[in-house]
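Quick illustration, no need to memorize.
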Amino acid sequence: MSYIKGYDPETLREIVDAHQCAERLGELGDQRSLAALLERVWLMKVLGLLDDALVVSEQSVRLARMGGTRKDLLRARILHASVQQQRGAYAAAHQELTTCAEEAEGQGWSALAAFAYQHRGKVSFDADDFTDARADFKRALFLRQGAGAPEEELASTLEAIRATEYRRTAASVAG
């Protein structure tokens, strides 16, 4: 079941049913599997529990390093960076996502690279760097199309490109 109902065009943040997310977070409890930790991080992030999300995301990165695959570790690092982004640590998030995107592309993991570029684009968007955001969203779209991504992933990337174009145009008119 998808908890995402859409994306806010002003912030590019996920629109979720908070009650449904909180209920799922309660169901997960203190499970320690990597999948459960990653889901808890995401749920905490979208619910605005950023301090808790940061702690659990750091645990997920450690667990993935110790016993996961390279892909698991990249997923955990990307999610950790997205928590950093929402906490306003744009430089740290951007750097982490850059290394994740480069590693994923180097391994030929297009879907994972697209995920990293999409999140790096959101970091640039939050930092009002619409040129870099647009480039990252375009790269994510290209990779997702090549990987045969589901329609909802393509749609979210296209929506991010439109929002970035709108903000970029508005910024240039205002400036």
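The chain has one domain: 4-174.
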